[in-house]
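Sharing a chain and its predicted structure for anyone who wants a worked example. Both blocks are below, sequence first, tokens second.
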Amino acid sequence: MFSNITDTKISKKIVEIVSGNKNLSIGGGSFCVIAGPCSIENELQFSSTANFVTKNGAQLLRGGVWKPRTSHKSFQGLGSVALELVKKITTETNQGIVSEVMDPRDIEELYPYVSLFQVGSRNMHNYSLLKELAQQDKPVLLKRGFASFVDEWIKSAEYIEQGGKASVILCERGIRTFETVTRNTLDLNSVAFIKHKTHYPIIVDPSHGVGVSLLVPDLALAAAALGADGIMVEVHPNPKEALSDGPQALTFPQFEILMTKINRIIEIVGQK
């Protein structure tokens, strides 16, 4: 479909996000770092992580309230109980947060607590959810389906945009391929394509992209060098004890080192 790709000038959209008492712009030459735990487990875990990543340069927090898991026996998140923790810690750190919404019925409950909604990989084709998100006015972070074509991903973004209220940020998070050495295959080709051929800002989630914490910093740096508009990484005070996705979470020292290197890269490629 895209075999004869040509370089045409497309006006890029800048998505404005309220994070604490500050405004963030994603797109337009700025680079955003989103960091935090896969799931909010308890106050100590979330508070320590949020304060650490904020101190080391993260501009937005991540933290799962509801977590879709392959096995029903796995930790599914704290649910609504976590929302008071979200309110307390985001106020404490003066940060906004992105968190996943899985059900149209949860949009109203989650709305007061988040700076933007996340649509996870499993829900990229959940058109009922996308249509409901199109009717509210907060930005949506749309993750690529783990077996989806780029064209399908763009069409899902258009479902959200058609309401005329919500802006969309795309997130490349790896796709399922024949390769099994990593959890997924991070498709940085898609990032270059989205940058050149669409108006959407795009960030990269290397944590889900490979599922191996050792490889996450290298892929985060590659995303920055490619000119992505940001990264989203998982950080945990003790990944071995994490209730979800511990093998892909960065430790505090790993995140601190990554941020030092990221700042060098974005300066070289001319981002803010």
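Comments welcome. The mean pLDDT is 92.
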